[in-house]
Amino acid sequence: MTTTKLKVKNPQELIRAARRKGKYNKDVANCIGIAPAYYSSVINGKLCPGPNTAEKIADFFGKKIDDIFFEVSVKKNTTQKEKVS
């Protein structure tokens, strides 16, 4: 099974764009209604945002989701653990 996740294309550009608006990462997070730690993890590539959060980030910067994020396909292991009786 393959799933698609979103990753930030250019984290430094987002940081610069926020600074041009007079904002820091925590300010951006607060403006779009997410935790600053979560926003930081998304920017640093540690977490992948869901579609709603990605849209909020893109809207904040006046961009499209595709301008900020790229898609990564991730294969999930589909093996089930056997139940031992």
From TrEMBL:
PROSITE patterns: HTH_CROC1. Residues 32-68 form the HTH cro/C1-type domain. InterPro entries: Cro/C1-type_HTH, Lambda_DNA-bd_dom_sf. Pfam families: HTH_3 (PF01381). It comes from the Bacteria. Signal peptide: none annotated. GO terms for molecular function: DNA binding. This is HTH cro/C1-type domain-containing protein. The lineage of its organism: Bacteria, Bacillati, Bacillota, Bacilli, Lactobacillales.
